[in-house]
Amino acid sequence: MTTIQHISTGRRIKDRVVQGLVYLAFALAVVPLISVLWLVISNGLERFDLEFLTHSMNGIGARDAHGGAYHAIIGTLEQVLLASLISVPIGLLTAIYLVEYGNGGRLSRSISFFVDVMTGVPSVVAGLFVFAFWILFLGFQFSGWAGALALSILMMPTVVRSAEEMLRLVPGDLREASYALGVPKWRTIVKVVLPTAFTGIVTGVMLAVARVAGETAPLLMTVFFTNSINNDPFNGPQMGLPLFVFDQAARPNDTAIDRAWTGALTLILIVMLLNLVARLIAWWRSPARGR
Amino acid sequence: MATNVRTRDGGPATSRSASRRSRGEAPFRYLSTAAGVALLAIMAAIAVFLISEAIPALQANKANFFTELTWEPNSSREFGIAALAFGTVLSSLLALVIATPVAVGVALFISHYAPRRLAAPLGYLIDLLAAVPSVVYGLWGVAFLVPLLRTPSQWLNENLGWFPLFAGEGIIGGKTMIAGAVVLAIMILPIIAAISREVFLQAPKMNEEAALALGATRWEMIRMAVLPFGRPGVISAAMLGLGRAMGETIAVALIFPATFDITFQILTPHANSIAANIANGFGEANDIGRGALIASGLVLFIITLLVNMAARFVINRRKEYARAGA
Amino acid sequence: MSKQIQVSGLDAYYGSHKAIEDVSMTIEPRSITAFIGPSGCGKSTFLRTLNRMHEVIPGARVEGKVLLDGEDLYAPTIEPVSVRRMIGMVFQRPNPFPTMSIYENVAAGLRLNRGRISRSELDGIVEESLKGANLWNEVKDRLNKPGAGLSGGQQQRLCIARAIAVQPEVLLMDEPCSALDPISTLAIEDLMAKLKDKYTIVIVTHNMQQAARVSDRTAFFNLAAQGQPGKVIEMDETSRMFTNPTQKATEDYITGRFG
Prior knowledge:
The complex is a heterotrimer of chains A (291), B (326) and C (259). With 291 residues, chain A is mostly helical.
């Protein structure tokens, strides 16, 4: 019985080798993730204490072991919140324009194109722009608000894209049913379309927040530096958690490096938590979308 | 990815609501249009203000901005972009060369090799790589990767030193171009993998089945029906990754030793980039210095803009191609 | 060339769902066997078990035996890849590789299975296969143009040429004309009549006239209810099936009372 010939060894080996390479590629990609998380956790836990979370660096000398990132955590939370307050309305309205009003015209196509291009604006350029515009041109001082402006530029395209995607998922029947009842278009959008897409939009916004919460470069030239607590994001330099890590990591002392690791751990916890919550919302909602 | 559904035409609904003379309609439409226009305005403003704030420093520059290697705007007022731009391009290209094959492998793993049940969670794991903040990668790079690469770097230099990239005398290893490039590669891997995964999943099932029915192995099927279809998508993904790598700042600011020379010796501690120089130099810069940094930021903005627009152009071409094929 | 297929006690599953149950039949060489039946009755699924394409779908599996001239296709030592090399398949929608030329489409299978092959030999086989698929005269001047530029009917004949280029023993056709216009359909039917001199042909069709026109034997598939597995109700010479079926369900289906 020799009807069915086996495939040649060469082909079999090639198939196996490629399979091996593909698995290897995946392993290679996961190794740095594990390594980063492991180092951050093991090195960060050392100083991950109450003092770190409740004290600033005010009056802490270069070699001192104490001090904390309270001022940086407060700064990051305020800056990210302000950035969201700016970018979410603009981003959401832009998405509404693209989906509901744009009708594929020239304006909507160029907005759509530049949203994509904006995704690629380097974060350091966003920072430099706010510095050039807000601080040099308009003459304001370094502040948390200036940092929020820079972060919001980075958030906007992400918010637009995710909101746009969610709005397009809303079934047309739903809109038409509302129109058929004589509800005007804008009220249909506000009362029917947005609530239907709500959880999806929240997920997108949280992922965008998670992304900018870890940004350091734009803060350098907008928020600047401070070692003390500044609760007012509109007046004077603030700190941000990523900035804190950068600042401490660039210092030569072990005590500072320890603080950098702990700052990194805190930052990763915040970012991962935001990510996780966003994914949970998306996951919790997905069965409804499948139907 | 954004689906490319055409915008639903609101024609009849608009006229009906207009006939009911809804007072909210016009303001709401103008508001959403204004938001979109604001986005365009921001892009334009970035260009305008970077240019206007860079001009004074460029005028004060005593050297040729495009050919000068050194960066001394604060003291001698001589500064040029040449070495920095070279470092930006070289580090990003190296990162791309390292990341793309791995990312394509990862994308194929998720789309065609991993068990169906595991594909989504494993894909999420790769996405998590993108969630790690840049500054954390920088910290990791300095503390872990730089020491790790020292021995292999020295080995390469001793045994393959005839190859220009591995050449160099004196100190080998440490805060090198290759260390920064590896970190950049890790950071751009998720975006290349995610886009490639999408296009591989979109490869027509009927062509995959045709290949299998001809007696193709899994790899042969992928080569016949998946890779040719996905090629434009992978190319644009790689270009987006390149744009990311060029703009990436803090990680390389911590790793690169801030030298100002042009060398292909990636195993020696000579490396810098436009973005890293901005991050490292901003704190101590005076007015001219800051203007100079803004000028370098403008160059970075233009380079990344071109790379990104080219990538988008390829993607949009592919969309048309995919639509024509459907 | 051209071999007999014997199926005994075959069940096919999608995950936990049983799509077909206990199918046994003999498919004779050098003849055309047609599978008819209402949608969802498992005839396409069954066709795909004959060249192990069924298991390409995640979670799909098969129990039972399929013998190709006495050799079990599902024996543990047999690889699905080599089975598919022996048993070619043509799909419902024409699916030439969009990035390849007409020539490359026909040569695709040969390049896989024959390793190094001389250009002149390849040219010969491509020409012969395209002639075998009644397509040569229409495409001989544009062999290097993309296959996607052809009409639907031409694309389907290109797919047939691609399948016969590797000289399979059996040709499986899954509703090959359902996406085509009547003239293209006629061209494919003529082609089938010609190909049956060399191949064992199995065709799934929704079109009973087509089954009556082209096939030598016909199997009627049906299922008891939605969600139940499909079964073979009756199998016989086509002429007898369509004039004098033994089962009431077959008669009802053929006369158009359901389905």
